[in-house]
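Q: What does the predicted 3D structure of DUF3040 domain-containing protein look like?
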Amino acid sequence: MSHPDDERLVALEARLARDDPRFAEALRAGRPAQPREYRRTGAWWMLLTAMAVLITGVVLPDGLLIATGLVLAGIAVQLLDPHRARPERRLPPYL
C-alpha cells in the first residue's frame, strides 16, 4: 500500500473511533457489533411502553394516558425510522 492510502486509512479509523467507539472497539477485537444506526433496542422498548400506556388509557378512560401513549408512540416511530438524518455535530467557532 502506498503512503497516501495509509494516511487515508488512519484518518478513516480515527473518524470511526470518534463517531462510534463501541463499534470501532468491537471491530478491533474481531467481534464487530452493529453500527449505531442499526441499534434500535431502546426505540422498541419505548414503543412497547407507549402501547402499554395507550391501552391502559383506553381501558381506564383517561385522556391524559391516551395522549401520553400517542406521544410516546410517535417518538418511538421516529426513532425507528431507518432514513432519519443524524444531527450534524457543530464545532464551536474559533476565535
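A (community wiki): The C-alpha cells above were generated from the sequence. The chain is about 65% helix and 0% strand. The mean pLDDT is 80.
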